[in-house]
Amino acid sequence: MVDTRVTLSGIELANPVIPASGAFGFGYEFAELYDINILGSISFKGTTKEPRFGNPTPRIAEASAGLLNSVGLQNPGVNKVISEELPKLKKCFNKPVLANVSGFSVEDYAYTCEKLDTEDCIGWFEINISCPNVHGGGLAFGTDPKNAAAVTRAVKKVTNKPVYIKLSPNVTDITEIAKACEAAGADGLSLINTLLGMRIDLKTKKPVLTNKTGGFSGPAVKPVALRMVYDVYEAVKIPIIGMGGISTAEDVIEMMLAGARATEVGAANLIEPFACKNIIENLPAVMEKYNIKSLNEIIGGAHNG
Amino acid sequence: MTQGIYRVISNRPIAPSVYKAELAGDTSGLTAPGQFINIKIEGLYLRRPISIYDYDEGKITVIYKTVGAGTEKLAKAAPGDKFDILAGLGNGFDISKPTQKPLLIGGGVGIPPLYKLCRELLQKGKRVSVVLGFNKKEEIFCEKEFSSLGAAVTVATVDGSYGIKGFVTDAMRNIDYDFFYTCGPLAMYKAIENTAVTSGQFSFEERMGCGFGACMGCSCKTKYGSKRICKDGPVLDREEIIW
Ligand SMILES: Cc1cc2nc3c(=O)[nH]c(=O)nc-3n(C[C@H](O)[C@H](O)[C@H](O)COP(=O)(O)OP(=O)(O)OC[C@H]3O[C@@H](n4cnc5c(N)ncnc54)[C@H](O)[C@@H]3O)c2cc1C
Ligand SMILES: Cc1cc2nc3c(=O)[nH]c(=O)nc-3n(C[C@H](O)[C@H](O)[C@H](O)COP(=O)(O)O)c2cc1C
Ligand code: FES
Q1: A24 → closest Cβ in B214, B219, B221
Q2: Which pLDDT does position B178 carry in this prediction?
Q3: B57-68: per-residue pLDDT in tens?
Q4: In total, how many domains does chain A have?
Q5: Pairing mode, if any, of strands B225-228 and B219-222?
Q6: In this predicted structure, what is the pLDDT of residue A138?
Q7: What's the pLDDT band for B87 if we cut at 50, 70, 90?
Q8: Burial level of B17, CB count in 10 A (0-12/13-18/19+)?
Q9: 3-state DSSP call for residue A6?
Q10: Cis preceding linkage at A273, omega within 30
Q11: Hey, what domains does chain B have and what are their CATH numbers?
């Protein structure tokens, strides 16, 4: 028997497979397809202080081995998330979840987290300081170490739950931001968010997305994500949730070897609704194939010493 | 929604750049005419949404136009080829609307989802009129299919090379109807919105990430809040649409 359990800031997960924010809604769409209680956890859709429709459509585009999205954080706002979405999520999922939170000012982040803090189903906060799809927000916090630290400190003040900061790959040196978050008290880090990208339609000769740019994710970004998780693992001591292009059990193991303690699966859920279920079911066999008895033992295994 | 592997029974052109494909596989997830499938095509990441033209136990028929990489690959599929498909997506048309004389208005490749709807409305004993709009005679498809079901079919061509000269709205003027269902391009919808005298349902298209409500890629604003075209649509009531 192989052991797929991992621990994130004192909370044990049955396995390291977590659907990534924005690719799994609030879980219930998928609960119609399979029992989602097999998942390690769920990171729910990015939640903001006010309701948001997001960007104008088209806001999805095909890309090589992946997709671009410029959804722009559509969500009903923190009050409705609490009154309508979380009750539905709790009905189909009985484990602690990651509350993915976005904002446009340090105060926004603190406000939203303080509201969500009383929700028992939330095990961790995952603070998105890296959304590339909202102008004048999100990414601005994720590309500057001082701002990243300010958000971290503000959120830590309003909650005792573990706070994971979700980092942007759209920076020159991701370890600099990672270290700033760690120094400001972050309990862990999530990476990577999407890579800023673009597609142009040859017929109209204009960008495919109305927003012009969008976040690139899917299998194509996996090497970038692995490299960043690897580098951040060397730079900080706090746990890392690794993501970017994960679609198979092999990908999960590769990400853990780079230094991830748990992993998130985004785009794959959209293309293959049973992606997380398949990954979880295949994990034991793939572990056996590579002589891995316990996933806990392989975290950061690709590093020397 | 169901996911399954479907086998191509047939796949052939029925008009310039327009193909009809019959697919064998699970139909247990289909609940209404006007729903769609999301088909995985090798070499492309996103699935491609296509409306269901007709279905019976174990068989789905679709009609599609080749407009890009995905539909061009699909056109090359041969009998026996297999595809990974999500089926039974979207709400579909509501056939329980209080109507005795429904009018079905289709424009170009918007016509397919109206076929199964037409069949079901006729089965319920409704007097169904159908208006099909095309640019010119060479592009016409499905006229016979609708009339052999027993619907009163009028064809309109923009250049007047067949049927009534003009747009579907020119053909609608002479038809007695008490509700309409439509699928076609946005320009046609705006004309219908300006012409139609009754309630009706419109079927919309949007770029999709998932097709089953998970990504929020396809949202649109309605009078009753935002809706996902893939899950809360693609069919919307006339009364809720913001033009
Ligand atoms: C609910 C729904 C039902 C549809 N039913 C039919 C049908 O019955 N017959 C038919 O011929 N076409 C239908 N379409 C349009 C069809 O999905 C597109 O023509 C097809 O996806 C184009 O793919 P491509 O790879 O050939 O083109 P590309 O231009 O290479 O596609 C690139 C991307 O844009 C998307 N896209 C392109 N055109 C459209 C469009 N009009 N609407 C939505 N997404 C688009 C593709 O899915 C893909 O993600 C439907 C679309 C939707 C949303
Ligand atoms: C449609 C879509 C919506 C997303 N929305 C969010 C979001 O609300 N908050 C967030 O932190 N990340 C969001 N992301 C980023 C993912 O959580 C993930 O970090 C990224 O997609 C990389 O993983 P992947 O390659 O497995 O998709 C979104 C991604 C996609 C594709
Ligand atoms: S396409 Fe993903 S929600 Fe509609």
Answers
A1: B214
A2: 97
A3: 999 999 999 999
A4: 1
A5: antiparallel
A6: 58
A7: very high
A8: middle
A9: strand
A10: no
A11: 2-89 (2.40.30.10), 102-203 (3.40.50.80)
**Does residue A192 surpass a pLDDT of 90?**
yes
Q: Which helix (H) or strand (E) holds A26?
A: none
Tell me the residue type at B36.
F
A26 assigned to some structural domain: yes
Confidence of residue A141 (pLDDT cuts 50, 70, 90): confident
Query: How far apart are the C-alpha atoms of A264 and A194, rounded to whole Å?
Result: 13
Written as six digits, the tokens of A156 are 């830590």
Top pLDDT among A136 and A50 is at A50
**The amino acid at A90:** K
Residue in B46, B213, B226 closest to A271 by CB = B46
Query: What are φ and ψ of residue A31, in 5° steps?
Result: -65, -20
The answer to whether the CB of B112 is under 6 A from ligand 3 is: no
In a domain, A1, yes or no: no
**Pair B132, B106: CB distance under 8 Å:** yes
CA distance B35 to B93: 8
Pairing of strands A6-8, A214-217: unpaired
- Measured between alpha carbons, how far is B237 from B228 in angstroms, rounded to an integer? 14
3-class SS of residue B199: coil
Query: Rounded to a whole number, what is the distance in Å from the CA of A203 to chain B's nearest CA?
Result: 10
The share of chain A scoring above pLDDT 90, in percent, equals: 94
Q: At A64, which amino acid appears?
A: S
Query: Which ligand 1 atom sits closest to the C-alpha of B62?
Result: 8
Query: What is the C-alpha separation between B6 and B84, in angstroms, rounded?
Result: 6
Nearest CA to ligand 1 atom 8: B51
The single-letter code of the amino acid at B161 is S
Is the shortest distance between the CB of B92 and ligand 1 below 6 Å? no
Residue range B71-99: mean pLDDT, rounded: 98
Distance CA A157, CA A117 (A): 11
Pairing of strands A195-197, A214-217: antiparallel
| CATH code, domain carrying A22 | 3.20.20.70
Which domain range does residue A20 map to?
A: 6-303
* A232, HSE (Cβ side, Cα atoms, 13 Å): 38
> Does residue A131 surpass a pLDDT of 80?
no
